């Protein structure tokens, strides 16, 4: 068992049971310690097999109820287009696409499109950190100054505190970053450049004293992944997660030209949905993954069951706490919990996404929507909650 103490003001997920920090500008275990150096050896690939989708379709009446719930959420929150899926072992599957991927071109959304999943990327990045801890390549008690120089309180902030959003370090959306981004919204940023805006900035609070969700926490962990593995983040995630899981529809994209057509256009709410130019490079390991419904299904189950990790590491991962945003009941270690469902949300730059798994029933739900910055709610999270409620009240899970 890990020897970490649970942070104060925490509670544990029931075992069976955005990127908001970028603000209006953009969105809308203890294991044996490593030495922090890069490794020239091949990565120890996780022993995991991609689960198959449940055979057959869900009952027609249940499908109708799910579609009606999704349609209602889209109407309430002015969502141009969406793709969603529900998978229940032993009962079947339901996937749907609704509305328009591009309003101006009247392009319908489809179930096979590639969608930006924004902060769901965080769950992948933290999973790699936990894998490396399981392998003894690093310790979650390591401080960030062992990997990245210049972070305020870097000699006190642990990797676990970065992963559970209790580090207190500054976010990178400084005045300097905003000035650069607004001067050239198409500029492609490297991870090192994103992290440079955090260095030597005043801390927001002492490490472990509070919880505050920021992209900078995860991007610093992305730099740790690079240093420990000796490879670029994009290569590390491909080698350690995407290839072993068969995630052929999931890609780390920082240059929008690499985004395969046809794809959805993002819209931000500014009185009405307004199209948003895509630049995922400003999100890095905190939010630059793009994925499909089918890969979302596989990731929801992998994340929720802890298939990539040792059982004791997954147990540590499920230690959750209240956090101001985004909308979870609890946020833990690169994973959130809502009504017993485990997973992650994402929001920003015209898109929202939600990917969740219910350990009790084995059901998974994925919702992608091409809208962000709704002042009243996170649309994809509302879609997930609506679909989960149908399952809870109906003949499904």
Automatic annotation (TrEMBL):
Keyword Signal attached: yes
Signal peptide: 1-32
Keyword field: Signal
Keyword Oxidoreductase: no
Recorded coiled-coil stretches: none
Any Pfam family the entry gives: Beta-lactamase
All copies of domain Beta-lactamase-related, residue ranges: 67-387
PANTHER family noted in UniProt: D-ALANYL-D-ALANINE CARBOXYPEPTIDASE, D-ALANYL-D-ALANINE-CARBOXYPEPTIDASE/ENDOPEPTIDASE AMPH
Protein name (database record): Beta-lactamase family protein
Source taxonomy: Bacteria, Bacillati, Actinomycetota, Actinomycetes, Micrococcales
Source species, domain of life: Bacteria
């Amino acid at each position: 068992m890990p020897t970490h103490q649970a942070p104060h003001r925490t509670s544990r997920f029931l075992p069976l049971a955005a990127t908001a920090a970028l603000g209006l500008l953009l969105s809308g275990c203890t294991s044996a310690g490593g030495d922090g150096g890069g490794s020239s050896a091949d990565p120890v690939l996780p022993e995991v097999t991609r689960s198959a989708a449940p055979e057959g379709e869900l009952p027609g009446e249940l499908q109708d109820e799910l579609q009606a719930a999704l349609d209602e959420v889209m109407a309430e929150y002015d969502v141009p287009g969406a793709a969603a899926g529900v998978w229940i072992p032993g009962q079947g599957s339901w996937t749907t696409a609704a509305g328009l991927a591009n309003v101006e071109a009247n392009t319908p959304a489809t179930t096979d499109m590639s969608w930006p999943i924004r902060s769901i990327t965080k769950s992948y990045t933290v999973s790699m950190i936990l894998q490396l801890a399981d392998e003894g390549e690093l310790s979650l008690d390591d401080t960030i100054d062992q990997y990245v120089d210049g972070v305020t309180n870097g000699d006190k902030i642990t990797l676990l505190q970065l992963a559970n959003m209790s580090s207190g370090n500054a976010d990178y959306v400084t005045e300097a970053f905003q000035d650069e981004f607004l001067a050239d919204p198409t500029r492609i940023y490297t991870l090192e450049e994103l992290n440079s805006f955090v260095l030597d900035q005043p801390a927001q609070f002492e490490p472990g004293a509070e919880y505050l969700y920021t992209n900078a926490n995860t991007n610093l962990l992305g730099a740790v992944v690079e240093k420990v593995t000796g490879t670029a983040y994009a290569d590390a995630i491909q080698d350690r997660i995407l290839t072993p899981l068969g995630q052929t529809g999931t890609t780390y994209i920082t240059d929008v030209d690499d985004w395969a057509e046809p794809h959805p256009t993002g819209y931000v709410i500014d009185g009405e949905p307004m199209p948003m130019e895509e630049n995922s490079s400003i999100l890095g390991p905190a939010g630059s993954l793009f994925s499909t419904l089918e890969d979302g299904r596989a990731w929801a189950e992998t994340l929720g069951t802890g298939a990539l990790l040792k059982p004791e590491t997954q147990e540590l991962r499920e230690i959750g706490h209240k956090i101001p945003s985004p909308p979870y009941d609890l946020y833990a270690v690169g994973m959130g919990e809502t009504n017993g469902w485990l997973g992650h949300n994402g929001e920003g730059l015209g898109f929202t996404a939600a990917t969740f798994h219910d350990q009790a029933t084995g059901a998974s739900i994925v919702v992608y929507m091409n809208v962000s910055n709704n002042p009243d709610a996170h649309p994809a999270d509302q879609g997930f909650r609506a679909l989960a409620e149908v399952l809870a009240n109906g003949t499904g899970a």
